[in-house]
């Protein structure tokens, strides 16, 4: 049975944040709020946890297109090849915000992602997840939780999310109602920016 923790985004309680980080460090899976839809995540350095998420999504880990959630742009060089000034300007303008940027990965990617040439980077405009990542000391791997419902693609009520997921994950954060629109995905790994999915973030940014 998963823990269910209420955390307020305006001023996240550090004791609660520490509880979440402990779960992540022990290889647990969490569901947490972002600036778009609720996400399912784990510690990027924990292979077992990564495998669990891939299994939930019904895909092989080396085929998975998970995003890396960072607390700011300073971790970028850990996983991303050197980027040019115009790309950096786009990132600086858009983040934190409701975007996922696909960037060229470097050789420091965790071994599970070594075959990948690109990586999706997120810096959500949400204090809860930013504080979690800061306290953890490295990004969390993330994927959005989709619904089977044909009308509602994403559940926005944390209590309903908990009802559905409490036997699958280790902890669900109630950070208030989520959004039902996913992030805008922009590929910056080629010569020209390419919009992969138009979501909550305005594409005018590029």
From TrEMBL:
Xref: InterPro entries: DHBP_synth_RibB-like_a/b_dom, Sua5-like_dom, SUA5_domain
Residue ranges of domain YrdC-like in the record: 14-201
Top-level lineage group: Bacteria
Gene Ontology terms, MF aspect: double-stranded RNA binding
Protein name stated in the entry: Threonylcarbamoyl-AMP synthase
Native source species: Avrilella dinanensis
